[in-house]
């Protein structure tokens, strides 16, 4: 089955572009990225519960998130700062996974209205090096992301 | 823009910059170039090889001699490309150093 | 003469590194990057007055700096967020020049002590694309600073070729 979330990664580059179309108005797509409770819902999966420890959703704000397993053990933590934050259009932020040797990445999220009920998310991720990008790509990154996006669609459908 | 990655390292070397200067006005043989430096001839040959590989120099056979001359097109490309940017940062960092040295003395 | 400031930019890439060794203790090198009163002394654009409107020198802080000309008109405004801030060691931040078509860049500054009185700065700058990086390299003015005209040996060579 083709994944709805598409990833474009050119050879030798240190960036990738992730695109996904949603059956959601652009306002809801943006909300899914900027309401801490909603982010927690779609970032969580059967094995890990996501929590936003800090979320200042505004230009020059910052965020901190972590995921814990069923035993309460932290399995993932990340943080970053918002360089740009324009409602329903654009978020530019830094992202760093703590305790992982993947450096810091710059993420440019573009939100685009296709129709009143369809929208598109384009995420341009830029890594510190092409070696790091390739390392990220080798992890089960694409299917994981596609599943998270599917969950986001389901959660946001209820809010329509 | 099609620059080999090592062009900038090539021109960062003081001897190689001196060779480029020497060749600015005329084409010269390897021997004549070497006679301008105190360094051993094989060292100069190595520098010429690097500059030629970067396309900053061109070789021309004239009878039994090989003459080196500047590849003007490539030189322009490189000089226009990165030098102003480097110089801007160099100037800025020089200023930083001066400012902080004054700062240190005031303390 | 050995060049003090080195710029390394590989063909086709979207990043570059700038390295420079200083006759300064690493503490002073770091201070020059984080003390607003000192920053304005060395980062000023020629013929303008810089002013730091905001400088949160800490993790997840942010900064904004404007430059005005002699008439008080704003000629440049730069801003960004600070992702990481480790005194005398590291700063990771975003940087953007407002109203300039060069996007946002991620900047990683590494401060390194050599001896008690010498230190090294390595800047790794990552752009949104290779095309933007090349544009910035070609026109340093595009990055928000007017360059002082450079006159060194390379230019001496170039003038002879004209």
What does this structure look like?
The complex is a heterotrimer of chains A (160), B (107) and C (162). Helices cover 27% and strands 40% of the residues of chain A. Chain A is an alpha+beta fold and 160 residues long. Chain A has a domain at 6-32 and 80-157: Alpha-D-Glucose-1,6-Bisphosphate, Chain A, domain 4 (2-Layer Sandwich). Chain B is α+β, with helices and mostly antiparallel strands. Chain B has a single domain (7-82), classed as Orthogonal Bundle (Arc Repressor Mutant, subunit A), CATH 1.10.10.10. Chain B is 64% helix and 13% strand. Chain B has five helices and three strands; from the N terminus they run ααβααββα. The longest helix of chain B is centred in the C-terminal third of the chain and has 35 residues, at 72-106. Chain C is α+β, with helices and mostly antiparallel strands and 162 residues long. Chain C has a single domain (5-161), classed as START domain (Alpha-D-Glucose-1,6-Bisphosphate, Chain A, domain 4, 2-Layer Sandwich). Chain C has helices at 26-34, 36-42, 130-138, 153-161; strands spanning 5-8, 15-22, 49-55, 62-68, 74-86, 90-97, 104-113, 119-126. In chain C, α1 crosses α2 (36-42). Chain C starts with a strand and ends with a helix. The interface between A and C is medium-sized, with 23 and 23 residues.
Write the layout of secondary structure elements.
The complex is a heterotrimer of chains A (160), B (107) and C (162).
Chain A: E1 6-8, E2 15-22, H1 26-34, H2 36-43, E3 49-55, E4 62-68, E5 74-86, E6 90-97, E7 104-113, E8 119-126, H3 130-138, H4 141-157
Antiparallel strand pairs in A: 1-2, 2-8, 3-4, 4-5, 5-6, 6-7, 7-8
Chain B: H1 7-12, H2 14-22, E1 28-29, H3 30-34, H4 41-53, E2 57-62, E3 65-70, H5 72-106
Antiparallel strand pairs in B: 1-3, 2-3
Chain C: E1 5-8, E2 15-22, H1 26-34, H2 36-42, E3 49-55, E4 62-68, E5 74-86, E6 90-97, E7 104-113, E8 119-126, H3 130-138, H4 153-161
Helix pairs in contact in C: 1-2
């Amino acid at each position: 089955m083709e994944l709805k979330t598409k990833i474009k990664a050119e050879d030798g580059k240190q960036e990738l572009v992730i695109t996904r179309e949603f059956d959601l108005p652009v306002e809801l797509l943006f909300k899914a990225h900027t309401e801490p409770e909603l982010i927690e819902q779609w970032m969580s999966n059967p094995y890990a519960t996501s929590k936003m420890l800090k979320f200042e959703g505004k230009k020059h704000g910052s965020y901190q998130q972590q995921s814990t397993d069923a035993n309460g053990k932290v399995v993932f933590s990340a943080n970053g700062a918002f360089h740009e934050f324009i409602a329903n259009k654009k978020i530019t932020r830094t992202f760093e996974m703590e305790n992982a040797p993947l450096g810091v990445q710059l993420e440019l999220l573009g939100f685009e209205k296709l129709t009143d009920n369809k929208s598109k998310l384009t995420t341009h991720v830029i890594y510190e090096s092409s070696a790091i990008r390739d390392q990220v790509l080798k992890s089960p990154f694409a299917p994981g992301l596609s599943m998270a996006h599917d969950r986001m669609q389901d959660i946001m459908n209820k809010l329509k | 823009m099609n620059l080999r990655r090592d062009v900038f390292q090539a021109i960062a070397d003081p001897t190689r910059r001196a060779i480029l200067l020497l060749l600015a006005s005329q084409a010269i043989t390897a021997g004549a170039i070497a006679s301008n430096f105190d360094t051993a001839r094989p060292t100069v040959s190595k520098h010429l090889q690097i500059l030629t590989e970067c396309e900053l120099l061109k070789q021309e056979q004239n009878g039994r001699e090989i003459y080196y001359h500047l590849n003007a097109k490539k030189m322009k490309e490189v000089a226009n490309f990165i030098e102003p940017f480097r110089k801007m940062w160099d100037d800025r960092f020089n200023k930083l150093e001066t400012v902080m040295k004054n700062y240190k003395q005031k303390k | 003469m050995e060049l003090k400031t080195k710029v390394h930019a590989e063909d086709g890439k979207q990043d570059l590194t700038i390295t420079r060794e200083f006759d300064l203790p690493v503490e002073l090198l770091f201070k020059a990057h984080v003390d607003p009163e000192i920053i304005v002394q060395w980062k000023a654009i020629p013929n303008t007055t810089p002013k730091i409107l905001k400088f949160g020198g800490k993790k997840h802080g942010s900064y904004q700096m404007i430059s005005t000309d002699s008439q008080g008109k704003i000629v440049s405004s730069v801003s960004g967020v600070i992702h990481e801030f480790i005194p005398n060691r590291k700063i990771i931040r975003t940087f953007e020049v407002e109203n300039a078509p060069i996007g946002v860049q991620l900047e990683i500054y590494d401060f390194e002590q050599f001896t008690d009185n010498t230190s090294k700065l390595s800047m790794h700058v990552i752009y949104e694309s290779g095309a933007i990086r090349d544009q910035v390299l070609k026109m340093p003015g595009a990055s928000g600073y007017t360059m002082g005209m450079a006159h060194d040996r390379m230019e001496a060579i170039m003038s002879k070729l004209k």
